[in-house]
Write the structure tokens for this entry.
Amino acid sequence: MEQRPIVASRQQPVRAGRRQAVIEARKVAVLGAAGGIGQPLSLLLKMNRMVTELALYDIANVAGVAADLSHCNTNTKVTGYTGAEELAGALKGAELVVIPAGVPRKPGMTRDDLFNINAGIVKTLCEGVAASCPDAIIAIISNPVNSTVPICAEVLKKAGVYNPRKVMGVTTLDVVRANTFVAEAKGLDTKDVDVPVIGGHAGETILPLLSQATPRVQFSPEEAAKMTERIQNAGTEVVEAKAGAGSATLSMAYAAARFAESVLLGLSGEQDIIECTYVESEVVPGFQYFASKVRLGPDGVEEFLPLGPLTAFEQEGLEKMKGLLSKNIEAGIAFANK
């Protein structure tokens, strides 16, 4: 997963050192655009020249966000949509739908605590996607991702429009954190570091493959355990540092903008666009949904890449997450079908 600029100005190419993707008309819809993640994410997407139309949706306070962003001198057209009656308008013609909608974590709150609120929000929004832009790629940020992705899939199945290669959970923040923490620990430049992160997007289901980091780095078993634990608990680190004032919003917006750019590059036919994402997958037997490295293309996920050899510590982590991840997936499916 090559590091690259996530936004493009007139002076800066989309991907330094590579041919530029063909710029086509791309409409992106952000559902939950007035929230703590939605606002900075929308700003980053407004700066991405592959996005020609940016539709911002929320249940309130989104008109001001749209007006504010529309003053930025990029060529991306920004429109705002408020409330359920305007959801269809926000979604019509969208090729990529990014969903950060939901309530944030507060101190002492786990991702599971968010389930009942955010699950209902995601279900409603995905019903809108099924009706208005069934061929769009859906990038889900709303936590708990381990459950909200299966919820979205079940909604689309009921509507007869489900494409498992186009429903993706955004786990890029785990990769971004792993890259940052490993670079700091080993004295490397963060732009040169790439650490695959597999599994899910909560606690022990987050498994960084430190043994497959680029460039190769060495960790003792004790160091690997400590680094893995920090990556798994990084979200809590932010929640506690903000002392009740919010969760990881800016870093999540950055990670989501990076993932959105990768999806758009894939849609434009750019080659070798690789990201980790949480999707319905057969990469690891026993897991219906799993985050791993995929190659993105015009149809979403073009190829699932193999996990590669795991260390004993990583294999143990894979075994430990099975019960929790399976429980999260089952909860999402049950919620969608009740």
In short: The chain has ten helices and eleven strands. The first strand starts at residue 27 and ends at 31.
